[in-house]
Amino acid sequence: MTVAGLLLTPGASAGRDSPPLVAVEKAVDPLPVLRVDFPNRAAGSRAPERAPVAIAHVRSTASSMAEALGVPPETLVLGGRSFGGRMCSMAVAEGQPAAGLVLLSYPLHPPGRPDRLRIEHLPAITVPVLAISGERDPFGTPDELRTHLAAIAGPVATVFVAGTHTPSNNGAVAQAVRDWLATIG
Question: Is the pTM of this model over 0.70?
Answer without folding.
Answer: yes
